[in-house]
Design brief:
By secondary structure, this protein is an alpha/beta fold. The protein is 38% helix and 20% strand. The structure holds iron/sulfur cluster.
Length: 308
Amino acid sequence: MIKKIVLARYQGFCMGVERAIKIADETAETRGQNSAVTILNEIVHNEAVVDGFRRRGVGQATSLDDVDSGLLIISAHGIAPGTIEAARSKGLEVIDATCPLVTRIYRIINKAIADGLYIIHYGDPHHDETAGIVGHAPDRITVAASHEELLALPDWPNRKLGLTVQTTAHSRQFREVEKLALTKWPQIEVFNTICNATTQRQDSIMEMAPLVDMILVVGSQTSANSKRLASLSADACGKGMLIETAADIKPEWFDPDAGVTRVGVSAGASTPQFLIDDVIDRLLQLSDQSTEVVRLKDTPKPKQATAG
Ligand code: SF4
């Protein structure tokens, strides 16, 4: 039986996701009657959100080859400038919903390259965000997805180097990567491009972990940041699970011999609030009248000791 449900201080939609959904929403509403509207790649990595647009008649494409006319919306994860140019030359009107924190990486990289640097980008080579970043300077950016891949890169003694990282990377892992990179290339300039929303959601897991026996992270299997929150939860509290919806919750997780009476709830940056609410409702169904629900954002922080 669940005795306590703890809700993470920061969870769910981030600024970039809210903004991208709003842009796509308004475009579908105001222009969708007269023009075909297509989103290139998933607007954000969440099935429920993607499905919602699909049901409203908004087209989805993973390649520009599949879009011949109308309006093209660029997802929150961004895109290579060459794709935007190609879309415009096909006569498409481009509406850019790239998150400003992804655009910030483009600016950092463009400036570093103008200063003569070659970039090592630490991230998932198959993620839309990485494709957009690499597309900004394919011959100057090398992607490494693991410590091994990083260490296998050449020594490049005569190159000025810069290190950037996927916005949703694990901050602890990135500190390790930074250390390895500085050992291998003491001249490397490090740009920590992990976004605020990611750091806040990861810190919230660490804050919640000592208070619970299990953490449920609501998010899609396609969401890099949700998967990372689930793996951080597993490391920090022993039991951390990624669930897409409330239907994934199994009552036997809370059997008396399972040792789980306190459950934490978090959600990735692309998870809509209604999915989080459904999970809380389901957990409440598996609770009793005495179950306490703690919202960490309401917990007053201990006062800082003052000097003197
Ligand atoms: S996770 Fe960060 S970079 Fe990605 S959309 Fe949200 S705010 Fe932007």
